[in-house]
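Try it yourself: sequence plus pyridoxal-5'-phosphate, in.
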Amino acid sequence: MALHPARSAGRQHRPRHPLHGLANPALGEDIIVPTERLATQPLPADTAYQLVHDELLLDGNAQLNLATFVTTWMEPEAGRLMAGCAEKNMIDKDEYPQTAELERRCVSMLAHLWHAPVPERAVGCSTTGSSEACMLAGMALKRRWVRRREAAGQPADRPNLVMGANVQVCWEKFCNYWEVEARTVPMEGERFHLGAEEAVALCDERTIGVVTVLGSTFDGSYEPVAEVAAALDKLQATTGIDVPVHVDGASGAMVAPFLDPDLLWDFRLERVASINTSGHKYGLVYPGVGWVLWRDQEALPAELIFNVNYLGGNMPTFALNFSRPGAQVVGQYYMFLRLGSHGFQAVHQASRDVATWLASEVERAGPFKLITKGDELPVFAFTTLTGTNAFNVFDVSRRMRERGWLVPAYTFPPNRSDLSVLRVVVRNGFSRDLAELFVHDLARLVPELQRQSGPLETGDGAGFHH
Ligand SMILES: Cc1ncc(COP(=O)(O)O)c(C=O)c1O
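Structure, out:
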C-alpha cells in the first residue's frame, strides 16, 4: 500500500452535465468531486458510481498486464460466489462456520499437496497474501530460535535470516519490522538466485532460518531448495548448527506440484519447516488470499496462536489482521473443487507452453537475450544483447505500453546491478493468440528503436518492488 500524503486543496472539478445527476438533476449541475476532504452532502448512488467508474478507466488493462503474478480473470461462477460472500468476515468463525470449514479443507489439501509427513499434523492458515504469510513464517522461525537459545542458556539477541538478494521485498520488511538482520547472498555472474554453498557460508548459530524462493520474482527461476537443505544437513553434521528452511512458494508452490511433481522442494525435505503461497497467484483466485503451512505442530510455537470464539468453542488463529474478507477463501475452495489436480496441471501447462513459446519468439524478434526461458514458473526475463546501443530495456517497456502492454523493466540487485531486464509473467488467460500479438508488436517496434541515436529512458530508480 503506497503511503499517501494528504493534500490541502481539492480538485475543483464541476461536471456540469445533467445526466450526472439523474436522481437529482439540480445536484448534477453543481457537483464538486471531492478529492481531499469529505463533501458535506451525499451524492445519489448512480452519480457516485458513474464518477468513480469513469475515473477507473485510467487504470491499465488487467488482461494486458504482464507485470503481475496476480490473478486477473476468474470464471463468472467464481465471481458470483465471491460477490455473494462479500459481507463475510473471515474472523467471524462463529457466525460463518462453513467458511471456516472451507478454510480448513484448503489447508488440508495443501498439506497433502506439499507432502506433509503426517498431513493431519500439519498446521496452517489463510492470510491476505504471501507477504502476511511470510511475516507469520518468519515470526515462527524467530520465536523457535529464541526459545532454543534460551533453553540452552545462550544469548538470544542479534538473530539473522539468510536469503538471496533476489527475495521479494516482503522479506526485507520482515527483517526490518521484526528486527532480524537480513543476510543476503548477492547475485554473481550467471547465478541469479541463492546458491547452496553461498547460503551456508552466511549461516551461524544466530541464524533463525534460510529462505529459499520457488521461484524468483526477478526471473521466474526455481531456487535449488534440495541443495540448500542438503548443504544445511552437512552444516549440522559438522558444526551442530541446525538451521531450518522456509520455502517462499508465492508462485511456485502452486505450480511445481502439478508440473514438476518429481522436483524435491517441499515437506519431503525434512529441513523444510514451513511453506507459503499466494492463493491469488497460481492458486488462481482474485487478489486477497495467501496460505502458510508448517510441517507439524512443533514447527509453530503454540504461544503465537490466539483463540477466537467458534461455535461457542475455541478456534486457534494466527494472523496479523483481525477482520479480513472471507470471499477469497471461498474462491480458493471453489478453484480446488473446480479443477482438481488434473485441472491445475492443464491450466498451468498451458501457461508454461505459452511462456516457453513466447520466450523463444522474443529472442528471435530482436537483439534480445533470454535470462530465463519460462520453463520453471511460466515467467521469463530478457535483456538486450551486448552491443545494442540504440535503445535499452526501459525504452522497450515504455514503447510497448503505448500499445497497452504492461511489461516491467528493472535492474537486478547486487552484484548484478549492471544488468537490466524486462519480465513477462504468463498467467491463466494469457492465450497463445495474445502472445502472438505481443511478439508482433515487439518485432514491429524494434526497427524504430534501432533508429534511435541512443537510449531515451534512463531507468533511474527502476529497482524492483513487486
Ligand atoms: C517470491 C514472492 N514472495 C512474496 C511475494 C509477496 O506476495 P503477495 O503479493 O501475495 O503479498 C511475492 C509477490 O510477487 C513473490 O513473488
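One thing you can check immediately is this: The chain has a mean pLDDT of 92.
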